[in-house]
Amino acid sequence: MPLYIRRPLQSPTSSNRLNTFALLQPSRIYLSCFASSSRRVPGPSRQDRALLPSHRFITPIRTFASYSRRQHQAKMSDANVEAAKRAAARQAVKDHFDPNAANVGIGSGTTIVYVVEAIKEASTNPAIRFIPTGYQSRQVIVKAGLTPIAFDSLAEDTMLDVAFDGADEVDVELNCIKGGGACLFQEKLVAQRARKFVCVADYRKKQDRLLTNWPTIPIEVAPLSVPAVLRALKTLGATEPKLRTTLLEKSGPLKTDQDFYIVDAPFKTLLVMEDVKTGKGNGDGSDGTWEVNRLSEAIKSLTGVLEVGIFSGLNGPDAEALRATDSRKTVTSGQKPVAVYFGMADGTVELRTAQQ
Ligand SMILES: O=C[C@H](O)[C@H](O)[C@H](O)COP(=O)(O)O
């Protein structure tokens, strides 16, 4: 149902109060702004009313005190999230970074900055080579005074000792959604090349199932294929897949480090394998439910899709063990983390590991 709300645009004073009407609809936001002192706040215009056959009109009375309290709470919660990321990063580095390592993968995003900070505190050994997963990741490595080396400079048989990265959401089986910051292809390359992938995140990312809090699956797509991929995603059950634009919408679609585009596809909350075993859904899309691995494969098979932002299947050590017994060498590399460190709101760090 459309929602008609009024809210202050800035902290109100008795002489000059800025109010705004916002009509929130799924596809449109109407905004009208006016200054008022003591005069009565007008309701929606006739034109707006025509657009709103069944609107709700809410007129909250907001004081300066409640306004600044909200701002203060938002700042506190931002600080909380950053503290959570830092705590998780420190613990992950303490447990998984070996100062004698040869090659270490470094992911992208805001959390990885704390991982690099903790690595730098543990060692600045110039012999350790850090493999970035994109432009921002390389910048973080260079700024920390560590030694970056491009992924394609690695000898073919060289495995990374460990790769650290963030995630947008993680489920109980350690499947991850990644790509919220438009990095996923190089992150997957690096995770698959690592003996172990260690994920670091804050409490908002810790969920039982994927697509619980995080709304969409990011997919990296060749620009030419975007219309066809959008259509195909709808047939797979994505409700309203969208091409991601830059913050300044008029600048057009957002480009990845590969000069590709990102499509964000919303699906119903995904099932884990256990859900399919216990009859919670077919998990193959036939009844509207998708199991994580099945959806990842279905999206990856679309022409024009470079990579999908679901990290699932095997983890590094499991892939290694299977490969040792696989004479045909068909086992693909692991891409799932062996451990996920979640910084919690109360300052503690929770650990989910592959064995749990
Ligand atoms: O595209 C970005 C990457 O997949 C990030 O690792 C992911 O979005 C998590 O980012 P952040 O640490 O900023 O939450």
How would you explain this protein's 3D organization?
- Belongs to the ribose 5-phosphate isomerase family.
- It catalyses: aldehydo-D-ribose 5-phosphate = D-ribulose 5-phosphate.
- This is Ribose-5-phosphate isomerase.
- It holds the Pfam family Rib_5-P_isom_A.
- Its EC number is 5.3.1.6.
- This protein has 356 residues and is of the alpha/beta class.
- The protein folds into two domains: 3-62; 74-353, Rossmann fold (3-Layer(aba) Sandwich), CATH 3.40.50.1360.
- Helix content is 29%, strand content 22%.
- The strands form four sheets. The chain has a seven-stranded mixed β-sheet with strand order 7-6-5-8-11-17-18, sandwiched between helices. It has a four-stranded mixed β-sheet with strand order 3-2-1-4, with no helix packed on it.
- The longest helix is centred in the first third of the chain and has 33 residues, at 64-96.
- The chain is globular and about 50 Å long.
- It binds ribose-5-phosphate.
- Residues 107-111, 165-168, 178-184, 187 line the site of ribose-5-phosphate (R5P).
- Ribose-5-phosphate binds at residues 107-111, 165-168, 178-184, 187.
DSSP strand (E) fraction? 15-25%
Give the radius of gyration.
24 Å
> In which range does the helix fraction lie?
25-40%
CATH architecture of the largest domain: 3-Layer(aba) Sandwich
Ligand set: ribose-5-phosphate
Query: What is the C-level CATH assignment of the largest domain?
Result: Alpha Beta
Number of domains: 2
Q: Averaging pLDDT over every residue, what do you get? A: 84
| Category by helix and strand content | alpha/beta
Provide the CATH topology of the largest domain. Answer: Rossmann fold
Q: Order of strands in the sheet with the most strands?
A: 7-6-5-8-11-17-18
Shape category = globular
Number of strands: 18
Q: Largest sheet at a glance?
A: 7 strands, mixed
Straight-line N-to-C gap: 42 Å
Regions with little confidence, pLDDT below 50 for 5+ residues: 1-63
Q: How many helices does DSSP assign?
A: 9
What is the chain-wise order of helices and strands? EEEHEHEHEHEEEEHEEHEEHHEEHEE
